[in-house]
Amino acid sequence: MMIVMQEGATPEQIAAVVARIERAGAKAHVSSGEFVTVIGAIGDDRELIAALDIEGEGGVEKVVPILKPYKLVSKDFRGAGATFEIGGRRIGGDNFCLIAGPCTVESRKQTLDTADVVNGIGVTMLRGGAYKPRSSPYTFQGLGKEALEILAEARERTGLPIVTEVMDVRQIEDVVGVADVIQIGARNMQNFDLLKEIGHTDLGVLLKRGMSATMEEWLLSAEYIAHGGNERIMLCERGIRTFETQAYRSTLDLGVIPAVKQVSGLPVIVDPSHAAGKRDLILPMARAAVAAGADGLIVEVHPSPETALCDGPQALYADTFAAWVADVKRVIDVMGKVIAGTEPATVAG
Ligand code: PEP
Ligand code: MN
Hints:
Elements: E1 2-5, H1 11-23, E2 27-32, E3 37-42, H2 45-52, E4 60-64, H3 75-78, E5 84-86, E6 89-91, E7 95-101, H4 108-121, E8 125-127, H5 145-158, E9 162-165, H6 169-175, E10 181-184, H7 192-199, E11 204-208, H8 215-227, E12 233-237, H9 256-263, E13 268-270, H10 272-276, H11 279-291, E14 296-302, E15 316-317, H12 321-334, E16 338-339
Helix pairs in contact: 4-5, 7-8, 11-12
The structure holds phosphoenolpyruvate (PEP) and manganese (II) ion (MN).
């Protein structure tokens, strides 16, 4: 449940509410706004409300139950349109988060060339995989630590925040200091131990939806991360498994964009590259995602997709990416959003 404190509630009154929540065996989550402090009491709402009987406590304005299974990531708790900052970029609200880069870091040259191109066009963040979740053990698995060094160089050179995937808790230590955003891949959305560990980091998180996960399962995975203390989470819709296997790689669930935004305060980033699996389908899906209310896009870009070691058929050509962005930007403009990182006030480096 959510305890909204009165404007001007004192630190002592807030501490008293927190102590009471903890005595009831629940976890208190204090969120201090400019005027009002909201305290989340995380536990089973029905039992908690009975145990706490907190209405009327000094400084308490009102008590609002959150009956959804996810609490901290719910719109009730976070409010709509709450924004946060990652690597000097504002995420959510009217800020559009455009993430671009290669599927996988293959070499220093391939990564830096792509980074220079996307930076010159004006994107929000650079993506690049160091540890790759491949379906076959015989395909390229990523360069690991060597890739992280290359990404660190790309970040230094362009000022772009870095998004990179972590598949295992043992990799977290390596990416801290290089990555601004940890990507949790679709295959790991329900790796709960990984989610818990990431919840203890202070990096941004891009949580991809599992390919057969319901919206509620996806939000409960986000709740694991938020429960650990990390609330800078971007949800990422990347296509789900349906009966279609030939026409495209996965079915981009456009409906989930407005649906998840109705119940959660988290920004939604759409990955049309992995949904489409085919280069030519990415632009129309990107336009549709933006029109459906997406807060950002993540797309794969490569200087020479024909030679890519992973996901070449869906990689956008680096040399025509400017025209691609210009096309999608028309829809971004219609939606009243601005690509974060391109507005003069927040350009980094
Ligand atoms: C990726 O982003 O390269 C990737 C493997 O994505 P997903 O987990 O959505 O398949
Ligand atoms: Mn990929």
